[in-house]
Design goal:
The structure is a single chain. This protein has helices at residues 2-23, 32-39, 43-54, 58-76, 81-87, 93-104, 108-117. 19% of the residues are buried. It is elongated, with a radius of gyration of 16 Å. The protein has 7 helices and no strands. Helix 5 (81-87) crosses helix 6 (93-104).
Amino acid sequence: MSDITSSSLDESFIQKTIKTVEEHIENPQFSVEELSSIIGMSRSNLYNKLMSITGSSPSEFIRIIRLKKSLKLLEKTQMTVAEVAYKVGFNTPKIFTHYFKEEYKMTPTEYRKQKEQSPQS
């Protein structure tokens, strides 16, 4: 029974954390300190909890949320890659492209072309 309780608590924690990151997604200065303050945890407790649930550090977690949001923008808008980068809180398109390629093994432009070529599902 405690597994069910803890997993639902973890789920609500993750949902709250994702929602908080999404509310501040356009702010490139949004930091782990701000996230931990809003969530109401110390930075080290936030780190430990996110690592245990997701395997990602808080900074990686924020970056993953930003990158997932960028996928939707690349698919559903005509924004340039640079506009998408700024919209999801990256300081420069170059940094955005670097992390995007690291995460998805292709550039944002390649991703968009691939999505345009594949039939809509």
